[in-house]
Design brief:
Residues 65-192, 213-259, 322-361 form the Cyclic nucleotide-binding domain. This is Cyclic nucleotide-binding domain-containing protein. Residues 617-652 are annotated as: Disordered. Strands 10, 12, 13, 16 and 18 form a 5-stranded antiparallel sheet that branches. This protein has 4 domains: 27-200, Jelly Rolls; 205-283 and 299-430, Jelly Rolls, CATH 2.60.120; 441-482; 484-538 and 563-597, no CATH class. The protein is α+β, with helices and mostly antiparallel strands. The chain is elongated and about 135 Å long.
């Protein structure tokens, strides 16, 4: 036994020695992240959250999810992440189960199994729940076909958090000691909305959790209820419910304003004065009520002579965190007694009758009964106020009210949807929860504004840096292409006359011929003719005989460039062509004439002859061309008259 333990220790040391430096660094990083995630979210420091954020953004599987989102949002989501450690052979999730967690593997490895026939009996389900270790190969085969393995940095469980009604598509089993980073559905939805560019507001879970009806509920119960609620958006001036229509739902107002009104019948006389208001009765199979003769007269006027008109009596106004349409589920009513109209664009969470029965009617637990009682108290308070408002309109038909419905609701002791108080209505400024919610909304708005400003500053900084680099490149190119007077003089001195160019060509040819002859051991055949050497020799310019030695003012300046310039052989050119501009013109003319003559050249001999001819033509003075008589244009009017005369003559 001792020998076996020693062998295991030696193997561990041997394996530890085989771990390379990068692998050891990854292991150290994983241990650091595990220590951070073991803490509660509120106990983590900003530096620790930055480490988690850095790991998530550098991981290739989660980088796409977090890319393009503000760092403030990403870090707040990283703060909500939790750690889950699972020993080898642990089933993380079963195929067909419902889940609300997105898993990121921090360290370790898992295997995925898919069973195409997922139909288990209750006995098998109980055995599956009681089984803990799944290291046995036979037991793992019962999960289905092996798909693949996922190592450190991998993710799974995205579908379960995207769709609350979706089920796990495979069974996940750990192969070794594995650590997971867990992300709840609420945080994951905030992350997805941030990726899609939507505004970060309450999630369904946070909204339900803030309602005072569910203050005593556990986290799992609230999560189960919020997953079953269906979001719905109603545009302005649209109806959620109409009087007399069948109803099977209750609405939790997420945002917007909803107006509740009761349909009434107004009876007016011939002068347009309202005599009486009556409620619109529901259609029933009962026989009509027989009215006594004395009841058929109202203020001396027969009821049959009064004009009838249907109107809507506003009874209540509901805002965010309010509940409306509760009678259908609380009192099992099949038809609506009121109209619910959206004053603005309204977002609601719909609780249908099936959800109500599943959550509130099956499990008769204490916190569920308490929530039902709160709903009933709220509905009874609203019914009392509704009956009071209808009674006021019925008994005082000509009463002109100068007070708003919201102000009347304050005195009716209706319940606040934020805190459950009877002293104020929902959304009142005196509600502490409303004040706190507005403060938090202001903080979120300020953070969003700061993040937007930082993003704009970063974009502007990038643009300015790019413009600066482009300008620097332009300045460098401009500095390289600047031409000074010194450069012009150098270029001017490098231009050669036709004879000088011919002499240089002969020299190059003779030098190459000499190199070839030395290499082959023969005598060079091509040499510069002596006649050409003599022809291109520069004659000494005649000295001006002036007793007073009267020079132009430019000779008084000493030019260093003239001392270092190499003397070139003189040309036999006219004196009026010895200036610099004349040389340039001659060179240009020489090139143009030579190019025209070289179009039909077939050999070197012809090329040399053409060059000599062009040079001779340049040395000879240009013959003045005879003057030609300028062409005078004819008078167009005279031409038209002649053409007309010719036409007339031809016709005759």
């Amino acid at each position: 036994m001792l020998q076996q333990a020693a062998n295991v220790a030696k193997a561990a040391v041997h394996l530890r020695g085989k771990i390379t430096h990068p692998e050891r660094r990854l292991v150290t990083k994983a241990h650091t992240l595990q220590a951070i995630l073991n803490k509660k979210p509120e106990q983590r420091t900003a530096e620790e959250v930055d480490l988690v954020f850095e790991w998530v953004t550098k991981n290739e599987n989660t980088n796409k999810l977090f890319s393009g989102i503000q760092d403030v949002i990403c870090k707040s989501i990283c703060r909500e992440m939790t750690l889950y450690n699972a020993p080898p052979g642990t089933v993380v999730c079963y195929q067909g189960d419902f889940g609300d967690i997105f898993y990121i593997i921090l360290a370790g490895q898992v295997s995925l199994y898919v069973d195409s026939t997922e139909n288990r009996t209750p006995m098998e389900e109980e055995m599956r729940n009681n089984t803990i270790d799944y290291n046995d190969e036979h037991t793992r085969k019962s999960f289905g076909i092996f798909i693949r393995k996922i190592g450190a940095g991998g993710t799974f469980g995205e579908l379960a958090v995207l769709d609350p009604s979706a089920q796990r598509t495979c069974t996940v089993v750990t192969n070794v000691q594995t650590s997971f980073i867990c992300l709840k559905r609420a945080a994951y939805h905030r992350l997805i909305r941030a990726c899609n560019g939507e505004e970060i507001t309450f999630t369904q879970f946070e909204f339900v959790e803030d309602l005072y009806y569910f203050e005593s509920w556990a986290h799992g119960d609230i999560q189960r209820l919020s997953n079953k609620l269906k979001p719905l958006t109603i545009s302005a001036d649209s109806f959620l419910l109409r009087h007399g229509n069948e109803v099977n739902s209750m609405f939790l107002i997420y945002s917007g304003i909803v107006q509740e009104s009761t349909p009434m019948i107004s009876l007016t006389d011939e002068y347009g004065f309202v005599v009486k208001y009556t409620q619109v009765e529901e259609v029933s199979t009962k026989k009509p009520k027989i009215v006594a003769p004395e009841e058929s007269v109202m203020q001396g006027v027969q009821l049959g002579d009064l004009h009838r008109k249907r109107i809507s009596l506003e009874t209540a106004v509901y805002e965010e965190h309010d509940i409306c349409g509760e009678h259908a589920l609380l009192f099992n009513e099949a038809h609506s007694k009121v109209d619910l109209r959206a004053v603005t664009d309204v977002k609601v969470l719909v609780m249908d009758r099936a959800t109500w029965n599943d959550v509130f009617m099956i499990d008769r637990l204490e916190h569920i009964l308490h929530a039902q009682q709160l709903f009933r108290d709220m509905a009874i308070a609203r019914d009392n106020w509704r009956n009071t408002r209808i009674a006021i309109a019925s008994t005082h038909p000509r009463l002109l009210l100068t007070i708003s419905t919201r102000s009347m609701m304050k005195h009716a002791k209706t319940i606040c949807g934020w805190c459950g108080s009877h002293d104020h209505i929902t959304g009142d400024r005196s509600c502490t929860k409303v004040v706190e919610a507005k403060f938090q909304a202001g903080i979120r708005k300020q953070r969003k504004k700061q993040a937007e400003e930082q993003r704009i500053m970063a974009i502007n900084g990038t643009r300015m840096a790019k413009k600066k680099s482009i300008l620097n490149q332009k300045f460098k190119l401009a500095a390289q292409t600047v031409i000074t007077t010194t450069h012009l003089r150098q270029r001017q001195s490098e231009l050669l006359s036709p004879k000088e160019q011919l002499y240089r060509d002969w020299q190059i040819a003779a030098t190459k011929q000499k190199i070839i002859a030395n290499h082959e051991g023969t005598s060079p055949k091509l040499q510069v003719p002596q006649a050409l050497r003599t022809a291109i020799a520069h004659p000494k310019p005649p000295e001006a005989k002036s007793p007073k030695n009267n020079f132009s003012p430019r000779h008084n300046f000493h030019i260093l460039e003239d001392e270092t310039r190499q003397a070139l052989p003189t040309l036999h050119l006219p004196h009026h062509l010895l200036n610099t501009l004349a040389k340039d013109n001659v060179a240009i003319e020489y090139k143009q004439n030579l190019l025209q003559q070289l179009k039909k050249v077939q050999s070197i001999t012809e090329y040399q002859e053409k060059r000599v001819d062009v040079l001779k033509s340049l040395e000879q003075p240009a013959q003045p061309s005879p003057t030609t008589r300028p062409r005078v244009p004819r008078n167009k009017k005279w031409r038209r008259e002649n053409m007309a005369k010719r036409t007339c003559f031809t016709q005759d």
